[in-house]
Write a structure and sequence with these properties.
Layout (H helix, E strand, L loop, with lengths): L2 E14 L2 E9 L4 E3 L2 E3 L6 H13 L8 E8 L4 E11 L2 H6 L8 E8 H7 L3 H15 L5 E8 L20 H15 L5 E5 L2 H14 L3 E4 L4 H6 L4 H11 L3 E5 L4 H12 L6 H6 L6 E7 L9 E5 L5
Helix pairs in contact: 3-4, 5-6, 8-9
Pfam families: His_Phos_1, NUDIX
Protein name: 8-oxo-dGTP diphosphatase
GO molecular function: bis(5'-nucleosyl)-tetraphosphatase (asymmetrical) activity
Amino acid sequence: MTDLVYASGAVCWRRVGDELMILLIHRTQHKDISFPKGKLDPGETLPMTAVREVEEETGLAVSLGANLGSIHYPLPKGREKFVQYWAAEVSEEAVQRSTFMPNKEVDALIWTPLKKVRAALDYQQDKEIFDVFLALVERQAHDTFSVVLLRHAQAEPRGEAFPVDHLRPLTGLGRGQSLTIAPTIAAFGRAKILSSTAVRCRQTSAPLATLTSKKVATTEDLSQDAWDEGTGNLRGVLGKVVRQRKNVVLCSHRPVLPDIARELVLATGTIPGGYLTESTDLPVSGFSVFHLSQEHPSSGILSIETYPKLLS
C-alpha cells in the first residue's frame, strides 16, 4: 500500500488597481517557484493546514475560498504526496500586517500578474491547479462566500432526564466535538452564525462563536420543531443568505438539513442532484461547505466539501 503524505495550500490572490495578482513563492532549498503549501500536522484537518502554512510561509493571514481540487505526485521510497488547494483572497490589511522575512524555506514572495503566472510556475501539477483557478476567474467566480450547513454535535437522548426535545443539551462527547470542529469551520473565514433555537444547536455553535469573536443568532426557522409543524420559513432564510453574499454557518438538525440544501439550490439556480444527499447525510457534528460566487451568486453552487473527511 502506498504511503500517502498529506499537504494543503492556497492560490492567494489580490487586486492591485485593475489587475489581479497571484502570490508565488521562491523556495530557498528547492530553488523553485510554486504556491504556498505544507504538510498536515497531527490533529489538523487539511483546511487548518492550508491556513497555517500560508501564514508560516508568507506571513499572510488568509481564509479559504473556492475549492480548487487536489494533485498527487510520487515521492522517494515509494511514497506519494496528496496536496489539496483552495483559492484565498489576501486583503490589503493582511499585506500590511505580513511578518514575512526571507528564511531557510522561502526566500521571496512574488506577486505576479495573472497572465504571467502559468509561465512562472516550475511544476506541471501547479499549472493544473492554476488552470482551475483561471477558469473561475474567467467566469468571475474566483471571489466567493461560503454557506456552511452544520449538524449539531451528539446530544443527550430524550427520556426522563430530558423529556423536552429542544432542551436536550450536548453530551460530554458532543461538547468535545463542538470544540474540535470549530477551527476547521473557521478556516473558511469569519461568518455569521445562525442556529436553531434548540439547546444542542446553540451549544454546538458556541465554540466557533468564541473562536471567531462572533455571536450566535437563533431562529425557529432552523429548528426541528418548526420543521415538524411545517411552520418554518427556510426559503426566506436561504434567500436572505444568498442576497447578503456573506459567509454564514447554519446549525440545524438531521431531518432539516436536506430541505435547507434544497432551498439553497433553488436560491442559487443550481441543478439538483445526488450531491444533495451526500452533503446533508451528516454524522453528528458533521458539516458541508457550499461555495458561491460573490459576483453572481445565482449562477449556481461552485463546489461543496463535506467533513469529516476520511484520509486513507
